[in-house]
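Q: Give me the 3D complex with adenosine monophosphate.
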Amino acid sequence: MKCSVCGGAAVIKLRHAGLRLCPEHLVARVEREVERAIRRFHMLAPQERTLVAVSGGKDSLALWHILAKHGYRADGLYIDLGIGGYSGRSREASEGFARAHGLSLQVISLKKELGATLDELVKLARGKTCSLCGTVKRYLMNRAAWEGGYQVLATGHNLDDEAATLLGNVLRWDEGYLARQYPVLPGEGKLVKKVKPLVFLSEREMAAYCLIQGIKYLYEDCPHAEGARSIALKGVLNELEDRYPGTKLSFLRGFLSLHERFRPPEPVELRDCPSCGMPTAADGPCRFCRLKERVSHGAPA
Ligand code: AMP
Ligand code: ZN
Ligand code: ZN
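A: Here is the predicted complex, encoded as structure tokens.
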């Protein structure tokens, strides 16, 4: 198998892009796609302070690596959610990467911020594990970015993640979620601008990138992901992709080109949470503070 660019030995075949690439040209492609997404969606500028949310997995570590390599002012944030032994291992992967590359990583712990680990929280609170996890992660990421004076918050969501999220939103015709699904969400007040520079890169490309660059990431998936709806959606898309290469990319690209047709149902007015001061649509404490309250009483909901 020959590299489509240089004719050297190719190590990966990207059917959706019609490419076979050698290590050097796979790296070049991934970095070029990141730069392209950053420019197309005006995600970030080199002088802006960016906080990269890192999970210890391939996508977020590769993203941090690329941003730092390309001269962006990118620091890392790791949230220790307290998920069995998994959190310790993902924290080690994140800290190991930061150390090896001389980058600055902030670590915050859910146990310290909320009073409970995620494993403890799911026993107390209503709601599915992944949705509770999403709520506390989004809150803590934004608060850390806001308090740290960062202009941008970047996450490692890739093409597979975004196509699966899109399929999930379309299956429910959830207009509000569709309107908010975009590679860049502008900042507003204490909500820091959010960007997803890996939206056009597949999981396979990101794994290959890490392997070639010697980025040691955690291979393991979160134990709670097993049986989650997002995994089923990814499975369906993988089957389609196998038979019709390019399905995920055209699904997502098509959606983005139609995106302005999706409008949030009602512009929600945000106010400051009386307890923590962060923005909330609720008429009282924000969801995080309500969870914290529940944790402090220790009674199951
Ligand atoms: P997930 O929600 O697990 O699919 O992860 C999506 C993105 O959220 C990752 O690429 C990271 O940027 C970020 N992320 C996930 N888990 C963590 C964590 N524990 N700490 C910081 N960022 C995270
Ligand atoms: Zn090549
Ligand atoms: Zn609050």
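A quick observation: The longest strand covers residues 73-80.
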